Automatic annotation (TrEMBL):
InterPro entries: AAA+_ATPase (IPR003593), ABC_transporter-like_ATP-bd (IPR003439), ABC_transporter-like_CS (IPR017871), ABC_transpr_LolD-like (IPR015854), MacB-like_ATP-bd (IPR017911), P-loop_NTPase (IPR027417), SpoVT-AbrB_dom (IPR007159). It comes from Paenibacillus silvae. Residues 2-240 form the ABC transporter domain. GO terms for cellular component: membrane protein complex; plasma membrane. The keyword Nucleotide-binding applies. Residues 245-287 form the SpoVT-AbrB domain. GO terms for molecular function: ATP binding; ATP hydrolysis activity; DNA binding; transmembrane transporter activity. SUPFAM superfamilies: P-loop containing nucleoside triphosphate hydrolases. The lineage of its organism: Bacteria, Bacillati, Bacillota, Bacilli, Bacillales. Keywords: ATP-binding, DNA-binding, Nucleotide-binding, Transport. Signal peptide: none annotated. This is ABC transporter ATP-binding protein.
Length: 287
């Protein structure tokens, strides 16, 4: 469904260049519900904005379904945003119109897309648990309820992919659980592929797979040991997802990212010795 290879994004201003993504590889399968984690500044939002068609990549490959995000015309990009992807932000003010009711908010993108479907809009609001509040104006709803309206809006044009940037960032833990359960339901019942960007490891137990981004590159992948297990705890004391198996990502050229702390512990700077003993590959400082 999503295929990124060697994806590069450089932000240029008058005198500085920031390399936000420096050759990132990522594959997301159809029907997956996965998360992208990483520290602040690691490139998560940049990646999501590219996948959502809000920003253009500088180089590399980014293919979503039948769309090549590097080659699309502006008109195709509008089409793509309207019908292929749904987007949810942490700050849901970007998705919502305060003077309209919840129902009217969900219908708005349908009208812009050329086809209002009231029955489906009502169904979506029912799915996110707002059946009784759909005729309330937005300002009469709580922050968590508004976030649920935002989820319904993001699904209003029946997108194949849902992209969520810190969707639980500004809600309490109970609302966070509710939102993650709604995502899971949408994923299972509508078959929507879901990509969630977060720096919150507590979401880890609720997704099938987590890809960690470090310095604009995918570094580690955590895959759920039992995909049918939705582990409420999902975390060890150290904060690492213990229901997931961790893998380092190796790109096609055989490159992998070694965590900085490992390199520092062994005082490895720009060179290392690599040995293969028949079973293991051992990296040591140069003699
Ligand atoms: N429009 C922009 N112009 C210049 N630099 C940018 C722009 N957007 C992002 N960057 C830079 O690109 C890098 C990656 O930013 P990005 O917002 O993708 O990180 P992030 O992982 O989403 O961080 P956070 O969790 O804080 O949102 C950062 O160094 C950031 O300062």
């Amino acid at each position: 469904m999503i295929q990124c290879e060697g994806l590069v994004k450089i932000f240029k201003s008058s005198d500085v260049e920031v390399v936000a993504l420096q050759g990132l590889n990522l594959t997301v399968n159809q029907g997956e519900m996965m998360a992208i984690i990483g520290n602040s500044g690691s490139g998560k939002s940049t990646l999501l904005n590219i996948l959502g068609g809000l920003d253009r990549p500088t180089a590399g490959t980014a293919v979503v379904g039948d769309w090549d995000l590097l080659k699309m015309t502006d008109a195709q990009l509008v089409e793509y945003k309207r019908h292929t992807v749904g987007f949810i932000w942490q700050n849901n003010g970007r998705n919502l119109l305060p003077y309209l009711t919840a129902l009217e908010n969900v219908e708005t993108p349908m009208i812009l897309g050329g086809k209002r479907d009231r029955a489906y809009a009502m169904q979506l609001l029912e799915w996110v648990g707002l059946k009784d509040r759909m005729h309330n104006k937005l300002h009469q709803l709580s922050g968590g309820e508004q976030q649920r309206v935002a989820i319904a809006i993001s699904l209003s044009n029946r997108p194949k992919i849902l992209l969520a940037d810190e969707p639980t960032g500004s809600v309490d833990s109970e609302t966070c659980d509710t939102i993650m359960n709604i995502f899971r339901k949408m994923n299972k019942e509508l078959g929507v592929t879901i990509v969630i960007v977060t720096h919150d490891l507590t979401l880890a137990g609720k997704v099938d797979r987590i890809v960690a981004i470090r310095d604009g590159l995918t570094s580690t992948e955590f895959v759920k040991r039992n995909p049918n297990l939705d582990d409420e705890q999902g975390l060890s004391e150290a904060g690492a997802p213990d229901v997931h198996e961790a893998f380092v990502i190796i790109d096609r050229a055989g490159r992998l990212q070694v965590p900085k702390e490992y390199l520092e512990a062994l005082s490895i700077d720009s060179r290392a010795t690599l040995e293969f003993d028949g079973e293991r590959i051992v990296i040591t400082p140069p003699r």
